[in-house]
Amino acid sequence: MKKFTKSLIAGALLTTAMTSSAVFAEQKIGAVNVQGIFQNMPQAANIQEAIAIEFKDKTEEVSRLEKDIKYYLEKNQRDAATMSAAEKKELEEKIIALRGEYTAKAQPLQQEIQQRLQEEQNKLLGLIKQGVDAVAAKEKYDVILNANSVAFINPDHDISKLVLEQVSKVN
Fold first, then answer.
1. Where does residue 132 rank: exposed (0-12), middle (13-18), buried (19+ CB within 10 A)?
2. How far apart are CA 94 and CA 100, in angstroms?
3. 167, 37 in Cβ contact below 8 A?
């Protein structure tokens, strides 16, 4: 009786394994290199430029503050021996005030730039997702994997080039 049960279970497992492998054999699986597409998109090159233009005035102001701080620090080192105590105190207060202003402007600016950059990158990733969906539907793929998480994929099933062409058409 035990032998029969074991045989029955083994047969059921074998049938399940054969059936599931047949199902997988019928699926068309592809891969896409999202990072590679993102780096090669014409729109991605424009992001940095657009953000630099958008924040030009603020970054110039922060840069000016950096230069002023550096100038006054160098002046303090260079002229400390010949300055009076009042002049030293005045210069140190000026440096402290500039550093405070720099900190108050630089960190929020960096965060604001980073947030805008992330927003623009998310838009492009959405565009890539639409491109992947369009190519997968057109080429009748059942599954598309990220190429960076796959050990091997036949180059015939890498749709990155097709997706790049698809997203490059969109402005």
1. buried
2. 10
3. yes
105-127 burial code (b ≥16 CB/10 A, e <16): ebeeeeeebeeeeeebeeebeeb
**Which residues fall within 8 angstroms of residue 99, CB to CB, at 6 or more apart?**
69
Q: How far apart are CA 90 and CA 28, in angstroms?
A: 74
Q: Which residues contact 75 (CB under 8 A, 6 or more apart)?
A: 91
What letter represents residue 91's amino acid?
A: L
Calculate mean pLDDT across residues 10-29. Answer: 59
Integer Cα distance of 37 and 153 in angstroms: 17
Band (pLDDT 50/70/90 cuts) for residue 170 is confident
Q: Which amino acid is at 158?
A: D
pLDDT at 23: 53
User: What are the DSSP E strand ranges found in 71-163?
Assistant: 143-146
Which residues have C-beta within 8 Å of that of residue 54, sequence separation ≥ 6? Answer: 116
Span 54-92, pLDDT tens digits: 999 999 999 999 999 999 999 989 988 898 999 999 999
Top-level class of domain 2-55+105-169: alpha beta
Q: Do the beta carbons of residue 72 and residue 29 sit within 8 Å? A: no
